[in-house]
Amino acid sequence: MSYQDICRIHDDQDAKNIPHSVSVIPQFPSEKIRRFCEIAAAHNYDYAWADTPCIDQASSSELSEAINSMYDWYRYAGVCYVFLHDVPSALTTAELEAPGSYFRNSRWHKRGWTLQELLAPSVVVFLSSEWRIIGTKHTLAHLVQAVTGIDSDVLTGQRTLEEFSVACRMSWASSRETKRDEDEAYSLMGIFGVNMPTTYGEGRYAFIRLQEEILKHITDQTIFAWGPALSNHNFSFHHLHQYRSNSDLLTKFQKETSSQDQFLLASSPRDFRYSSTLVSIPWDEFMRLLKAPLDHRPTYTMTSYGVRTRLPLLAVRAKDNHTNVPTCVALLACKDGEGNLMTLLLRSQPKRPEVDYFVGAVVGHLREIMGSIDNIEPFSMTPAFLQYYFRTASLSADDLKTCSLWFHSQEIYIPYRPSLASYSLQRDIPLHSHLRSAPSDSFDLRVSTWSQELLKMAGYCVTHYPGRNPSTIAVTNIADAETINIYVGRCDCSFG
User: Fold this and answer.
1) DSSP category for residue 45
2) pLDDT, tens digit (0-9, with 9 covering 90-100), for 429-475
C-alpha cells in the first residue's frame, strides 16, 4: 500500500461527496495497515502513521526529508506498535524467553530500519501475528537485550543513547540487514543525531559519509577501534624519534599487504560486531591519563592524502629479529571492557613513512607467517594471511606506566576509505565468485551486435565457436585473413 493509494482513496471520497467523518479504513487494500489503524483507533488515538503509505517515495526530496526526520517522528510518537508476523499469540513468559523461541527468532530483530523503531519511541508495544499484545519494550527489556545486545537501561529510558559510545551503538546494528547498502547508513542517522542528504546509488559509500558526519558532531574515538584485535603482543615500545634514528627499522619488517581493514573508517556496521564493550574517554581525562599537557584537541580534516589528524604515537620494536610488527601504535581516547587503553596499529606508507600510515599490520613470527601460505605477493590478503592481520591492540595500565614518557603527539595522514573503484570491485565479487564456482569451464561467450557492426566497418568479421573449451571467438581481418583468437576460461584470481 503506497502514498498514492491513500491519495486515490481520499480523492474518491471527495468525488462522491462522502463526509470526512466516514472512515476510509475499510477501503485500505493492505490488511496490515487496516489492522494497525483499527488498533490505534481502539486505543483512542486520532492519528496513525506508517512509513509505506505516508511517504511519497516517488519524490526524492520528500523521501530524503522523511528519512532524515523519521527518528524524531518515532521519538515524539505517543506509542509505536510493532507487528511481529512470525510470533503467534498465547505465548507464556517462559515460552517467549525460551531459547529458540518465536520471539527470539523474529525477523524484526534482524532488520536495519527497525533499530530506530525500537530505540526512539518512549513506548513500544509488541503485537503478535493475531494482533494481540505480547508486551512492551519495558516489560520485555531483559529479553530484548538478550536478543539484540542493547542494554536494557536504554530500552527503559534509564540511560540515554549519548551515554553509549559510537562503537557500542554501531554494534547494535552489526547483525541487522537492509535491502539496499545505503540503508545501512541512512537507518542510523537519528541514532547518532546527524543528518545528511540521501543518494541512492552510492552504495556503501553512504556509510563512509555517515561516519564523516559523526566525526563532525561527536568527540568519540571508538569509531576508529573496529576490526581484528591483537590480544597478546610480543613487542616493546619506544619514543618515535629514537625509533626513527635507525631508518632500516622503518622498512625491515614492513610486509606489503592490502586489506579492506587498512582504512581509518569502517565499510559497514558489521565491522563493529565485537566493539560493544568499548567506552569513550573524555579528552581532558585522556590527557591526564597520559600525563600530557592539554595543548590541543583532536580534529579531523578529510584530504586527498587521507584524514589529517594529530594523535599520540609510540614506536614499536620487535623483541626478536624474526617477528613482524607494526611501525607504531596510535593511542585512542577509549578503553575496552577490562579498562585497557585501545590503540591503533599503524604501518608506514613507503613514500612518506614518517607522516603517512595505513591502519593494521601483519603481526607474528615470520616463520609462522611464511609457512602458512605458499607465496606472499604484494597487495595480497589471502585467508591464511588474514589470521595474522590486526588493526587494534590494548595497552594495560602497567604498559601505560612503563612508556608514559615516550608518547609523541604528531600530525599524520591515514587513508579513510577505499577508492570508489574498489567499492565497484567489491560489488562484483559475488559475480566472479559465481563464475569461479560454476561446475563447467565452458562459457557461452558472445560479442554484442553493435560491436560486431563496428568491427565489420573496420574490415573484420567475428566467428563464434560454441562448445569449445576454453570458449573461443575469432576476429579475422578480411583483407589479409589474419585472425586473432580470444580464449575465455576460468582464472585462479582471488577477490576480497
Assistant:
1) -
2) 666 666 666 666 666 777 889 998 998 999 999 988 877 777 888 89
CB distance 82 to 126 below 8 Å = yes
Cβ neighbours around 105 below 10 Å, total: 13
Residue 308, classed as helix, strand or coil, is: strand
Under DSSP, the state recorded for 261 is G
CA distance 337 to 317: 27
- Can the peptide bond before residue 470 be classed as cis, meaning omega within 30 degrees of 0? yes
Give the distance from CA 313 to its chain's centroid.
Answer: 27
Distance, CA of 447 to CA of 56 (rounded, Å): 42
Residue 95 to residue 99: CA distance in whole angstroms: 9
Q: Are 495 and 433 in contact (CB under 8 A)?
A: yes
Sorted by sequence, the CB contacts under 8 Å of residue 10 that are 6+ apart come out as 24
Burial (CB count within 10 angstroms: exposed 0-12, middle 13-18, buried 19+), residue 151: middle
User: What backbone phi and psi angles, to 5 degrees, belong to 334?
Assistant: -160, 160
Contact 271, 223 (CB under 8 A): no
List Cα–Cα distances, 331 to 308, 310, 312, 360, in angstroms.
16, 11, 6, 14
**Which regions of 349-495 does DSSP assign to beta strands (E)?**
357-359, 361-362, 364-365, 389-390, 392-395, 408-414, 460-465, 471-477, 483-488
pLDDT value at residue 217:
95
Nearest CA to 238 out of 365, 359, 360, 402 is that of 402
Return the beta strands (E) in 162-289 as ranges: 229-230, 235-238, 279-280
Nearest to 357 by CA among 404, 303, 292, 306: 306
Give CA 202 to chain center in angstroms: 14
Residue 246 neighbours by CB under 8 Å, 6+ apart: none
State the cell numbers at 430: 559475488
- In sequence order, the β-bridge partners of residue 237 are 316
Q: What's the grid cell of residue 489?
A: 576460461
Question: What is residue 133's three-state secondary structure?
Answer: strand
Paired sense of beta strands 341-348 and 306-318, if any: unpaired
pTM > 0.90: yes or no: no
What pLDDT digit, counting tens, does each position of 31-83 carry? 888 899 899 999 999 889 988 888 888 888 888 999 999 999 999 999 999 99
Angstrom distance (rounded) from CA 292 to CA 420: 39
Cell 536495519 -> residue: 112
Give CA–CA dist 496/491, Å, rounded: 15
pLDDT digits (tens, 9 = 90+) for 254-299: 444 556 788 999 999 999 999 999 999 999 999 988 888 877 788 9
